[in-house]
Amino acid sequence: MADTGSAFSLAIDAMGGDAAPEIVLDGLELAAERHPQARFLLVGDEARVGGALARRKRAARVCSLRHAPEVVSGDLKPTAALRMRGSSMRIAIDAVAAGEASGIVSAGNTGALMALAKIVIKTMPEIDRPALAAIGPSARGDVVLLDLGANVQCDARNLVEFAIMGDAFARVALGLTTPSIGLLNVGSEELKGDDRVRAAAEILRDSHVGTQFRGFIEGHDITAGTVDVVVTDGFTGNVALKTGEGALKLMRDLLRQVFTSSVPARLGYLLARPALDRLREWMDPRRYNGAILLGLNGVVVKSHGGTDALGFAHAVDVAMDMVTHGYNDRIKDGFDRLAGRNRLAPSPN
User: Fold this and answer.
1) Phi and psi, residue 294, nearest 5°
2) Cβ neighbours of residue 330 under 8 Å, at least 6 residues apart?
3) What is the DSSP-derived secondary structure letter of residue 345?
4) Would you give the DSSP letter of residue 102?
5) 3-state secondary structure (DSSP) of residue 184
6) Closest Cα to residue 110, out of 250, 307, 259?
7) In this structure, what are the phi and psi dihedrals at residue 43, rounded to the nearest 5 degrees?
C-alpha cells in the first residue's frame, strides 16, 4: 500500500526489537486480522521492509510504508537518539506529534522511546509527569501496575496523577466500570509510609475516585488481586515488576526440574499436562506484552524487545484499545473532576 498521507490508527516502528523487522511484520499480520479497519503507518528501511511486507498479504493491505534511513540501536543513549532525526523511532513519533497517527508501538530502545515521546509528543496539560504502566496476572484476574520506572522520585501530586491515569487505563484495557485502586506501601495501616504517600491517600479519599480507593496495600496484594490498580513510585514499581518476572521464571524452572527428575515424575507430567497447559497459557508473558507510557498527547506503547509475533500483536491490541476507546478523553475528564475538588496542589518539581 502506498503512503497516502491520510490519518493512521497507529505508527509502527518497524526496526525496533531484537528480531526486527521480521517479528514486527509477523505481529502486524496477526494484528491486521484482529483489526481489519485499522490503518498503520509502518516506518523503516524500505530495502529491508518493503519486500518482506509484500509477502504478508494481510499486513500489506493495512500498512503504508515510510522510509527511515536510521535505526536506534538497543544500547544507544537517549541523548544520542534525540539527535537522530531520521530514525524509524523518531519518524514514527513525529507522525504522532503531528496528528498524523493516534499512537505508536515500538519494540526498540526503552530509554530512547521514553525520552523522545516526552520531548516530541509532550505530556498532556493536566499532567506533571507521564507514568509507565503495564498489565499483569493476579489470583482474581488482570491488574494494572504503575509507575514502572519512568519516575524514580515522586511526590504526592505525582501519585495522585498516577491513580487517575490508572483508573482510566483500567476502564479501557480491562473493561472495568469502577476499578478499585490501592497505594503500595509498607503496611496497610493509615499511619504507615512517608508523608507523600499519606498525603496522596488523603487526596484520593476526598476525590471523585474516593469510593474506589481501598487505601494502602502491600506487596503480596499485587498478585492476590486485592485491587485492580496498584499505584506506586517508579523505583518501587520497577523493583516489584522485576521481582515478579523473576518469580515466574523460577516457578517455570522448578516445575521443569520436578517433572523431569524421574520416570514417575514424567508420567505425572503426562497426567497433569492439560492443567499445566492451561497454567502456561494463563502465565504466558506474551499476553501481557506492551508497557504503556500514560499521560502524553498520544498513545505510546513499548513492546518487549525480545517478544515474538504474538507478543507484538498483543502490544498493538493494547494500543488499539486505547485509541478506539478514547483513553486520553477519559484522562481529561478524570483530571477535570479532580480539579473541581481543588485538592491537587502544583508540584514543586
Assistant:
1) -90, 150
2) 168, 171, 172
3) P
4) S
5) strand
6) 307
7) -115, 120
Count of beta carbons in the 10 Å neighbourhood of residue 211: 9
**Backbone region of residue 178 per phi and psi (left: phi > 0; alpha: psi in -120 to 50; beta: other values):** beta
User: What average pLDDT does the segment 250-260 reach?
Assistant: 84
* Distance (Å, whole) CA 266 – CA 274: 14
Distance CA 47, CA 326 (A): 35
DSSP alpha helices (H): ranges in the chain?
A: 22-34, 46-54, 57-62, 78-82, 88-97, 110-116, 156-173, 195-205, 220-224, 234-259, 263-282, 309-324, 327-339
The closest alpha carbon to 128, from 301, 294, 292, belongs to 294
Q: Is 325 exposed, middle or buried (0-12, 13-18, 19+ CB in 10 A)?
A: middle
pLDDT for the residue numbered 275 = 76
2 vs 346: CA distance, rounded Å: 47
- In angstroms, rounded to a whole number, what is the distance separating the alpha carbons of residues 253 and 258? 9
Quick one: cell of 232? 506506586
Enter the pTM of the model. 0.85
C-alpha cell at 100: 498524523
Please tell me the distance from the alpha carbon of residue 82 to that of residue 77, in angstroms, as a whole number. 9
Q: Which residue has the higher pLDDT, 124 or 283?
A: 124
Location of C-alpha cell 525496533: 16
Tens of pLDDT, residue by residue over 16-35, are 999 989 999 999 999 999 99
CB atoms within 10 A of CB 98: 11
* Res. 344 pLDDT band, cuts 50 70 90: low
pLDDT band for position 6 (cuts 50, 70, 90): very low
Q: Which residues pair with 133 in a beta bridge?
A: 146, 292
Distance of CA 93 to the CA centre of its chain: 16
| pLDDT tens-place string over residues 268-321 | 878 777 877 676 666 666 677 778 999 999 999 999 988 899 999 999 999 999
Q: Are 65 and 50 in contact (CB under 8 A)?
A: yes
> Does the pLDDT value for residue 179 go beyond 70?
yes
**Residue 17 three-state SS:** coil
Considering the chain, what percentage of its residues have pLDDT values greater than 70? Answer: 93
